[in-house]
Amino acid sequence: MLIAFPVAAALVVWLLPWTNQVAGSLALLAALVDVGIWINALTRFDFNGGLEFEQQEEWFGDLGVSYHVGLYGWSLWLVGMAVVVSAAAIAYAYWNGRENPRAYFGLMLFLTGAIVGVFSSQDLLVFYVFFEAMLIPLYVLVGVWGGPGRLGATIKFVIYTMAGSLLMLAAIVAYGLERGSFDIPESGTSDNHWIFLGFVIAFAVKAPLFPLHGWLPDAYRESSAEVSAVLSGVVSKAAGFGFLAIAVPLFPGPADDLQPLVLGLATAGLIYGSYLAFRAPDVRGVIAYSSLAQMSLITIGIFALDDLGRSGAVLHMVNHGLISAALFLLAGAVERRTATGDLNRLGGMARGRPALATVLMAAGIIALAVPGSSAFAGEFLILSGILDDGWGWAVAGAFAIVLAAMYMLRLISAVLHEDVGPAVPEEALDLRPAELAVIVPLVGCLLALSAWPAAITEHLSF
Amino acid sequence: MDKPVVDWFSLSPSLTLLAAAGLALLGAVLVPRVAVRIFSAVVCALGFVGAGVAAGLLYWKSPEATYEVADTIVRDRYGALAQLIVAGVGFLAVGISYGQGTRREHVGEYFALLAACGGGMVFLVQATNLMTLFLGLEWFSICLYILCAIEIDRVGSLEAGLKYLIVGSFGSAVLLFGSALVYGATGELEFGAIAAAIDEQGLVNDGLVLAGLAMMIAGLGFKASAAPFHMWTPDVYEGAPTPVTAFMSAATKAVALVLAMRVLVTAFPAEDDLWTIAVAVIACVSLAWGNIAALVQRNLKRMLAYSSVSHAGFMLIAVAADSELGAKALLFYLIPYSAASLGAFAVIAARERELGEQVTIDNVGGMGWERPTLGVAMWVFMLAFAGLPLTGGFVGKFYVFAAAYESGWWWLVVAGVIATAISLYYYLAVIRAMYMRMPAELQLAPAGGSPPREALLSASVVVCMAVTVVTFFAVQPLIDVAEKAASQLPF
C-alpha cells in the first residue's frame, strides 16, 4: 500500500492532462496522504513480532522468485523517514515551481514509491528491482532539472551506481541459484566471500563509502535542492538497508572475516569526508561531504555486528536523513536568495532574518551531535557498539565527531555570521512561511527525536 | 520409394504467409493504383495474423515433438513459439512500414516480399534437416536482399542491398559447405540421425565433422550478426529502409539463434564440450565488439546495429549454457528484445520521416518533449536494451545469467555484466539527447511543417512498449510457455 499508492499517484499525474498548478498540488496531496498511511501503519505495528504487513505474490516460480514485501520494526522507521523527506521535497519543489510539472512531480512520486519498495523488499530480486527503479527517475530528475553541469553529473552518477548494482545482480544470481531461492528470510546463509563482496561494493557505491564516492560531489551540487535532499537523505539509506538486511544477516561468516576491511574503509571515509567537508568551498559541498562522513559512520555502526551498533545505525540513518534533507533545502533557500553557494561570497545572513538563522542553527547544531541531540544519541550508540571490536575504531569515530563540529560551525558562521558577503543582497528576504512550513516539520521531527530517541531505539525489531 | 506424407497443418504458417505474398503480388497488378498500398498492407498483415494463429494452434496441438514430411521438418512447441514471435514481429512491421514513402509502383512488391520473408523464417525454425535448413535460410535471405534495396532512389538503400547480398551469400556458402562436410562425414541429413551417426561411427573427433560444425556455426553467426561475423550489420542496418531494418533486427536474429540452438543441441550433442566453448567465445567477442563500437556511433541506426550485435552475444550466452534453462532463457529473451528492437527502429523511422534525413544523436534533441508518446516509448526501449527493471529486458538478462551460472559459465556472467555496464553509456545517451537537450540550443531546422500524425506507427510503437513492460510483470505465464517449448529439445 505504501509502495503502490505513490506509484499510482505518479501515473495519475503523468497521464491525465492536469494544469501545472493542479499537478503540483495533487502530488503534494499524494505525498501527504502517504505520510498519513505510514502513521496509520505505525500505530498498528506490533514491535514484538518479526515481519509485519507481509505480502507475497508469485512472480516466477521456477527460479524461486516472488514479489515478497514486508516491514521489520527497524525498516518501518526508515520508511517513515523516507515518506516524510519525500513529502518535504515535493512541497519545496511545489513552492519553488519547476518546468514541466507533470513529468517532474510524477517522477518524484515514482521515486518515493521505489524507495519505500527498497525498504520493504524481502526478496533479493524485488530488492534489486526497486533499487534500480530508484535510479531511473533520479537520472531524469538530475539530468533535466539540474544545474549547468548536470549532464556530466548524471553520467558519473549512473555509471558508478550501475556498475555497482550490476555486480550485485551477478551476486544475486549466484546466491539465489546456490540457495535455490531468492527470498531473504528463507534462503538461509552463505559463506561465499565473492558474493558477499558483490553486495558490499554495490552498497558502498550507493552509500557512498570511500573510495567509491566519486559521483557524490557532482550529483549533490548539480541537482536541484530538493532532489539533493532526497538523494542524500533517503536514497543513500538504501545502502544502509542493504547492509543491514542482506549483507550482514545472509553472510555472517564473510561479514565477520571482512569486518576489518569494511571498518577500515568506513573509518577512512569518515575522516576523509569530514576533512573534505571542512575544506569545501560551498554550502552544498559541506553538506555533501558530511553526508559521506555520516554514511561511513552508519556503516561502522552496522559492521560493529552487535545490537548496540545496529540500533545506533538505524537511529542515525533516520537522523541523518532528516538533517541532510533539512540542510539541503536550507541551502536551496540560501541559493535562491543569493544565487550562489560560495561560502566566501556569503555571510551575515542572520542579521534581519531571524527565521533563517534559527532554523539553520537548529539543524546545524543537531547535525554536529551536541549532547542531548538525537544525532548524539545515534553516534553514541554506534561508538559504544564498536568499542567491543577495538577501541581504535571508537577513537577514530570520536575524532570525526570533533571534525563534524568544525565543519558545521564553519558552515553556520560563513552563512549567518561574519561580515555581509558580496553576494548577499540587502533586500534578500527571510524564510517565507511556505518554506518554513516545509523545513520546520523536518527540524521538529529531529527535536522530537532528540527529546525521545528511545522512540526508535526501544521500538526496533530485527 | 514411398511418397512422403505431407502434414499440411505443420506447414500451415509458412503456407499462409506464402499465400498472402502471392495475393499481395496479384493485387499489385489487379487492384486500382490508389488502393494498392492499403490492399497489400492489409493482405500482408492478415497473412501474419494467420501465421500467428496457425503457430498458436501448432503450439497447442503439439504436446510431443513429431517429425513430418519425410523427417525434414519437426512439429514442436519450440519451433511454434519462435513462429509466434516472427508472426508478431511481422505484423507490427507492417504497421511501421505503412507510412514509409516507398514508391507506389513498388509498394505491392514490398509487402509481398515481407510476407514471403516471414514465410521463409517460420519455415526455417521448423527445419530439422540440412536441406530444409539451407532452403529456409536462403528463402528468407533472398527476400531480405531485395527488401534492403527496395528504395532504389537512395544510394544507401542500394548499397545496403548489395552489401547484404554479397556478405550474406558468403555466409550462406560457408553454412552450405559446412553442411556438406557434415553430410560427407556422417552420410545423414537429418539432425537426429547425424547425432546418432556421430555416436555410432565414433566420429566425435572426426576432422570433417569438426570442420563442418565450425563452418555451420560461422554461417549461422553471419545471420545472427554475431561478432566477428557482423561486418555487414552496421552498413546494412543504416542503409536499408528503416522498417526493414526493424524487421530484420528482430526477426532474423530470432530465427537464426533459435535455429542455431536447435542444430547444435540436436545434431551435435556429442561435441558439446567443443561447441559450447566456441559459442561462448563468439558471445564474448560480440559483447565486447558490439558495445565498444556502439559507444562512438553518432548515427542512431548504426548504434542500434552494434547494440544488436551485443544482444546476439547475450543470446549466445543462453545457447552456450546448453541446457533447458538456457533454451528457456533464449526464448524469453527474444520476446522483449524483439519488441524493443522493433519499437526503437520504429521511433527512428518516425523521426526520419519528420526530418527527411538520417537520424543522429544530435537531431533527436528535444524529441522527448515534442512527441511525448514516442519519447516515453524510446525511453522504455533503451531501458529494456540496457536490462533495467520495469522492462522485460531485465528478466531476460536475469534468465540468461541464471542459465550461464547454472551451467558453470560464471565468467560469461561477468562478461555479460561488464558489457551491460558499458552499454548503459550509449543507451542513456539516447535518452539524454531526447530529453536533456533542447532543440533551440542545438539549432535544428525542421524539415518544414509538422508531418502528419501516423496513427499506425504510433500504435505499433505503443504495442511494442506494452509488450516490453508486460514481459516484466507477467513473467510466470510466459516462462511456462517457454518451458514447455524448451522441454522438447533433447538435452
Overview of this structure, please?
The complex is a heterodimer of chains A (462) and B (491). Chain A has helices spanning 4-15, 20-44, 73-96, 101-120, 124-145, 150-179, 193-206, 216-222, 225-235, 237-250, 252-257, 259-279, 283-302, 307-338, 354-367, 374-387, 391-416, 433-451, 454-457, and strands at residues 52-60, 65-71. Chain A is mainly alpha-helical. Chain A has a domain at 258-462. A two-stranded antiparallel ribbon of chain A has the order 1-2. The mean pLDDT of chain A is 84. With 491 residues, chain B is mainly alpha-helical. Chain B contains 20 helices and 2 strands. Chain B has helices at 8-30, 36-61, 77-97, 104-124, 130-148, 155-186, 191-200, 207-224, 232-239, 242-267, 272-295, 300-321, 324-355, 367-370, 372-386, 392-406, 410-436, 439-442, 455-473, 475-486, and strands at 66-68, 73-75. A two-stranded antiparallel sheet of chain B has the order 1-2. In chain B, helix 1 runs antiparallel to helix 4 (104-124), helix 8 packs parallel to helix 11 (272-295) and helix 9 runs antiparallel to helix 10. Chain B is globular and about 65 Å long. The two termini of chain B are 33 Å apart. The interface between A and B is medium-sized, with 35 and 31 residues.
